Amino acid sequence: MMKITIEHLTRLEGHGHLVIDASNGKLIECRLDIVEVPRFFEGLLQGRHFSDVAPIVARICGVCSNSHSLVSLAATEQALGVDITDQTKGLRTLLAFGEILQSHLLHLYFMAAPDYLGVSSLLPLAKKRRELVMRALRLKRLGNEICEVIGGRAVHPVTLCVGGFSSLPETTALQNLRRRLVDALPDLEATVELFAGFTIPSFSRDTEFLSLTAENAYPLDGDTLVSSDGIRVPVAEYQTVVEEYLVPHSTAKFARASRDTLMVGPLARIKNGLRFLSPMGRSVAAAVELDPATLNPFKIVLARLVEVVHCVEEGIHLIDALLQQGLRRETPQVMPRAGHGAAAIEAPRGTLIHAYEYDRNGCVIHADCLIPTAQNLANIEADLRELIPTLLDLPREDLSRQLQMLVRSYDPCISCSTHLLNIDFV
Amino acid sequence: MDLVPGEIRVIAVGSPLCGDDGVGAVILDQLRGRPWPQRVRLIDGGTGGIDLLGLMDGAGQVILVDAVDMGRAAGELARFNLQEVRLADENGRSLSLHQAGLAEVLALGRDLGILPPLVIFGIQPQQVDIGAELSPDIAAAVQPAVQAICAEVENCLGI
Questions:
Q1: Which CATH class name applies to A2-417?
Q2: Does residue B136 fall inside a structural domain?
Q3: Do A122 and B90 touch (CB under 8 A)?
Q4: Residues of the domain holding B126
Q5: Which residues of B touch A119 (CB under 8 A)?
Q6: For chain B, what is the domain count?
Q7: Rounded to two decimals, what is the model's pTM?
Q8: How far apart are the C-alpha atoms of A337 and A360, rounded to whole Å?
């Protein structure tokens, strides 16, 4: 008889417990308890004017505040019939890249790397491997700088508005940013070398991989959802394919699509959009053996690494294009009207959907947010259920370490996923 | 943020949405109402985690302001430096980089040898529950803290 309860899993965003009960080599119970308090953001939005919506939803999360803002603006613009310019699209894409870099680099160095380096955090490495820790801090700051230049600050952007931007970055700031991205390439190279040297646990489980479509570019935004099980629907019809449901042990919703489990995020994007990775991104993917056939969830960490390289390379090209066009001040015209809008973005952890219904005064009647981590939770539990029986001979500490590594590889953002829910505690 | 090397940075840490944890932000607001020479920078460090290291980088002097549970009477103000406090567990066990606490961040900066000269002004909170109000004892501690921090900055400036 073995019962393991890991309370307050560390090195992930938010608070969860892992509860495992096994006896005679058989797994009896395995639960990822999500214990954060629900935060009711969708209720909070009701009655709010369209101009308040994006700043409020940014507060859903301090890690992906930019993604929530961007997808919120896209949903509102759709509802109000507002078109955005190529300049706005370019700047918003750059901001999305900045956030992917912030989030992925934090995960890679501060959450994932300690597992592979045999330490409990980067702190014990500060003296022994100072260069590695300094590199981690430099890279983490790079993502922040992009978000500061485009969004006005590192989290909870202040320059975005419905229809465009209320304030544009200075040309010199974009030029400096470009220089910073180019200067970061040696650090990226060292990062690839570090992660390529890690022994990733071998495990695989087939599931449904869902992301936005990649028809012309690597999945980032778009209006079609696609999955490895053949889903292909407009984002506006997401509720016809992704079903959210409640489980008693979680304050976050779980979700499923064509089968019981569903994965969104970097690995799903790479499987669906490998051919659209930047040249450097593609070669890193090849070097770490990531391809459309990859089914090992531990490899999501490597998918994140590939996306970091992709975002830096594409970010440089995007800045070049913006500088070449020259930034022009635009004054978006937005009139309130009744309407419905649903938009999606590939946030760092996967497909994020916001849908709003507005009344004729431009105030929210109804809001719905589908959060990446909520879509991944059932998948994480299913992975654990399949992985645990193969590890029961290991010493308890090793078993526990490997299970935590699996949960961490999804980089679950529990704070984000628990704002959704009306819950009855039994 | 264009940080200038050598400047004096007053960095407030904490969340204004978590009761007395917002005391740093309230103090910062009061400080903003005064005239300061260019080489004094007032910064809202938010719940900055490891990003605080970037905010401190290159400063001539940092003055950190935060609600700190010191087991003292609510509202009590303490001025201390790094040598006077025990930071994170040597092996980093307390370090969960999600909500990296101030102690962990300072320990990391210390071990990397990248911390500028630093003093901390800690205010003992009464409660850090969700809510935007300071407890009365903590609200009453704001003015004395502002005076003490002003004196500290003036001292750094050689006034």
A1: mainly alpha
A2: yes
A3: no
A4: 8-157
A5: 91-92
A6: 1
A7: 0.90
A8: 4
